[in-house]
Specification:
By secondary structure, the chain is an all-alpha fold. It has one domain. Helices cover 82% and strands 0% of the residues. The protein has 4 helices and no strands. The longest helix is centred in the middle third of the chain and has 38 residues. The chain is flat.
Length: 141
C-alpha cells in the first residue's frame, strides 16, 4: 500500500518541479549565446507526456499493489482460523495470482514508456529495423 502513496507524492513533486521550470525563463547575458532554446509549446508537450506517463504508472501501481496489500492483511487476520484443504488450495491459487499481478508493476514501465514516449518508440523501431537488416544479410550470405 505504501508504493502507490510514495508514487503519488513523488509524482506531484515532479510535476510541480517541471511546471516551475516551464514557467521560468532564462535570459542569457549580452555576450553569452543561449545554450538551448526550447519553445514553450515543446515544454508543454513534454509536461503533458510526463503527466500522462505518471498517471499511467499510478494507475498500474494502484491496481497491482493494492490487491497484494489486501492479501497480506487477509493472511494475517485468518492465520489462526481453521481451514479446509479446499479453502487452503483456493487461497494458495489466489495468492499466486496476486503475486503474478504484483510482478506486472515492475514490467509495466517499459510499456508505459513505449506508449507515451515518441522518441523511445522511434529508437525501438530503428533498433529492430537494423536487426532485421543484419539478419537478412546473414540469410543471403
Amino acid at each position: 500500500m505504501g508504493t502507490p502513496l510514495v508514487m503519488i507524492v513523488l509524482a506531484v513533486l515532479l510535476l510541480r518541479s517541471v511546471r516551475n521550470i516551464t514557467q521560468r525563463r532564462v535570459v542569457p547575458k549580452d555576450d553569452a549565446p543561449p545554450i538551448a532554446i526550447i519553445k514553450g509549446s515543446d515544454l508543454q508537450c513534454i509536461d503533458s507526456r510526463l503527466t500522462l506517463m505518471l498517471f499511467l504508472q499510478l494507475i498500474i501501481a494502484i491496481t497491482t499493489r493494492v490487491p497484494y496489500a489486501v492479501q497480506l492483511v487477509y493472511i494475517n487476520i485468518t492465520q489462526s482460523w481453521p481451514k479446509s484443504p479446499l479453502r487452503i488450495a483456493i487461497e494458495n491459487v489466489l495468492i499466486e495470482l496476486i503475486h503474478l499481478l504484483s510482478y506486472t508493476f515492475f514490467a509495466s514501465s517499459f510499456y508505459v514508456s513505449f506508449i507515451t514516449n515518441r522518441d523511445f518508440r522511434r529508437k525501438f523501431k530503428n533498433f529492430f529495423r537494423k536487426l532485421l537488416i543484419i539478419l537478412h544479410r546473414r540469410e543471403i550470405n
